[in-house]
Amino acid sequence: MALADHDIESRLAATVTDLDPNAIDGSTADLVERAFVDTVGVTLAGLSTDIGRSVSRWRPDGGLVATTERAELDHALALGAAGHALDYDDLSWAIDGHPSVVLVPPILALAGETEASGQEAIAAYVAGFEVMSRVAAPISPAHYEDGWHATATFGVFGAAAAAAWLLDLAPEETRNALCIAASTPAGLKRNFGSMTKPMHAGFAARSGLTAAILARDGITADDEAIGGDGGFLDLYGERSEVEAPAGRYIDERGIHTKAYPCCYFTHTAIAATQSLAVEHAIDPEDVESIVVEASQGAADALAHSNPETGLEAKFSMEYAVASALARDRVDLATFEEPALSDPTVEDLRERVSFRTDPDLAYDAHTSVVRLERDETVERRQENPPGTYGNPLSEDRQRAKFLDCATRTIREEHAEGLYEDLDGFAEVDSIATVLDVSEAL
Predict the structure, then answer these.
(1) Does residue 116 contact residue 429 with C-beta atoms inside 8 Å?
(2) 390-395-401 Cα angle (round to 5)
(3) SUPFAM superfamilies under this entry (predicted)?
(4) What is the pTM of this model?
(5) Cα angle 101-104-110, degrees, rounded to a multiple of 5
(6) How high is the mean pLDDT of the chain?
(7) Which stretches of 226-314 are DSSP H helices?
(8) CA triple 415-416-417, angle to 5 deg
(9) Where are the beta strands (DSSP E) in 179-288?
């Protein structure tokens, strides 16, 4: 059994209660603002899916912000599931998963009750991000490699922390919230490519919010449920010594915005394939074979070489690369009919071989794509577009938002919402800005 950490719970609680929104610098606020805007967009798109429509029956308030306390928990569940439904939401290697889709839903659920401003929403987000990153650090990425869906298992702590900050819980109450949350983490990678995967995010968002509300109402937990013997860290992974960053995890590890609505492990290969196609004017019919080399992490996540549904196709390297070569872009329509049954894509997919490179780190996002024809061409892609250090352009970010939002609301409403969210940190009431109930 790993050595107990008898102080982690108090340090995590202090991370939340000591956070001063005025101490968050402009670059961090801008990063979180982009994450909020992106998450609102992908959530609106997710509401139009079968998953979104199914969970919306638990969202009695209809819009993006809960208007009654009774609706808050179900609201967090519905928005979390919808936000992850298309696998288009952002991610961070601080947790080996998707931060915003578990942080934004509880913040939106509490926005009405707490009258949260944009600055307060950003502070709650930062509190949640830091807490789940600190929980993840001692056991990640081995935790993910063992089959856990880290978005859900670490995300529940982030959701609890974000809610605790907005509810202004005292240090002991915040500690209780996190220790209550420690009894709820779940989510299996085995369900990747199914309708249950997005539910993991919804469950985590609701469970974290539930933990904070229970702690506010006086429910207690063992005060070493995270770091003590038999606590979360003992049971969910093998601990290792980790040197924490001098500043915040969010600034050190950042947030990556997705350029394509599918598993992130496909993104470098998609970008490499598209670049080769343009640079060499490749006709798909002339390609004899396509070879993709990536890390073992990609092989573990991408389990559907012969996908039969759009959800499975999101976790198929073969389908993603074939689509990147056969179509002018990889977007939401790529994972819907008629693209799924496009004979050109199907034919190309059968010519794609995917193998791992043992020299690449498990979570490396380097892909080598080799297109074999009369003249073989190859490209080594280190990172996909949209990374923390190379964010999407403003035009591309706006286009993504509108493509997503107009799945649910009319274009004029989507454009107005995007403009209203500009300068999110200065918004007096996020509940007012995000009231799209009449546009749905």
Answers:
(1) yes
(2) 95
(3) 2-methylcitrate dehydratase PrpD (SSF103378)
(4) 0.94
(5) 140
(6) 93
(7) 232-236, 249-253, 267-279, 296-301, 310-313
(8) 90
(9) none
3-state secondary structure (DSSP) of residue 223: coil
Which conformational region is residue 281 in: left (phi greater than 0), alpha (psi within -120 to 50 degrees), or beta? left
* Helices and strands per DSSP (H, E), number in the chain: 21, 4
Phi-psi region of 176 (alpha: psi -120 to 50; beta: other; left: phi over 0): alpha
Question: Measured between alpha carbons, how far is residue 103 from residues 170, 209, 414 in Å?
Answer: 20, 10, 22
Mean pLDDT of 162-170: 98
Q: How far, in whole angstroms, is CA 162 from its chain's centroid?
A: 16
User: Cα separation of 420 and 407, whole Å?
Assistant: 19
Alpha helices, DSSP H, located in 3-154: 8-17, 26-46, 50-55, 72-84, 100-114, 118-136, 142-145, 150-153
pLDDT at 6 > cutoff 80 = no
Residue 154 predicted with pLDDT over 90: yes
* Coil, strand or helix at 352: strand
pLDDT of residue 429 exceeding 90, the answer is yes
Joined tokens for residue 238:
């093998």
Task: Give the integer Cα–Cα distance in Å for 349 and 344.
Answer: 9
Q: Which amino acid is at 431?
A: A
CA distance 149 to 251: 23
Rounded to 5°, angle at Cα 87 from 414 and 61: 50
Residue 88, token pair as written in the block: 């288009």
For the chain, what's the residue count?
440
Give the chain's domains with CATH numbers: 8-259+403-433 (1.10.4100.10), 264-381 (3.30.1330.120)
Instruction: For Cα atoms 423, 398, 329, give the angle at the middle one, nearest 5 degrees.
Output: 160
